[in-house]
Amino acid sequence: MDRGEKKQCVASLADVFKTTSVVVVARYSGLNVAQMQALRKQMRAAGAQVQVAKNRLVKIAVQGTEATSISELMRGPTLIAYSNDPVAAPKVAVAFAKDNDKLVILGGVMGTTALNIDAIRSLATLPSLDELRAKLIGLIQAPATKLAQLTTAPATKLARVFAAYGGKDAA
Q: Contact 53/13 with Cβ under 8 angstroms?
């Protein structure tokens, strides 16, 4: 990797640290190519990304950003997983680490807050932004649906009474 490529890599990593909401750092020593591809595929499906970069370049890229706390985690073969959704990357990383013991989550950062392993696991248990939006829309729509049911209920009951009287006369 020549100097120009390194500058480009540092610039792209700095952009990642400035724009994403959560970054997870994990050690991937011992994962084979198929397992790494499976991890990348799962991350992509969740709206997150995985990147393996040189630790030295990551340490340079985090300088001047809110993610400076992860520079101490960058030792050995590490990868970074990041997403704009605060729960997407931690959720996939924790689920993948349960299945593959060779992926070890070291920590991460969310905004200016440094995350330890327990914080990342608790983030992974939270519902995603899409799930929260769906619940919120359901809560907003529920009163309108119940109101519509209440307005049609008296007419329905009245129709049943008329039908019962009509059936009584025919008998």
A: yes
Report whether CATH 3.30.565.10 matches the domain 3-126: no
- What's the CA gap between 150 and 18, in Å, rounded? 51
- Alpha-carbon distances, residue 14 vs 7, 11, 60, 102 (angstroms): 10, 5, 8, 27
Q: How far apart are CA 76 and CA 55, in angstroms?
A: 8
Among residues 20, 52, 19, the alpha carbon closest in space to that of 37 is found at: 52
Judged by DSSP in three states, 102 sits in coil
Asked if residue 90 lies in contact with residue 46, where contact means CB atoms within 8 angstroms, the answer is no
The amino acid that residue 81 corresponds to is A
Q: Are 24 and 124 in contact (CB under 8 A)?
A: no
Cα 50 to Cα 58: distance, rounded to the nearest angstrom: 14
Q: What is the pTM of this model?
A: 0.72
Q: Tell me, what DSSP letter sits at residue 47?
A: T
**What distance in Å separates the CA atoms of residue 148 and residue 64, rounded to the nearest whole number?**
55
List the beta bridge partners of residue 131.
none
Each residue's pLDDT tens digit, 140-169: 877 777 666 667 667 677 677 777 777 776
Domain ranges of the chain: 3-126, 128-171
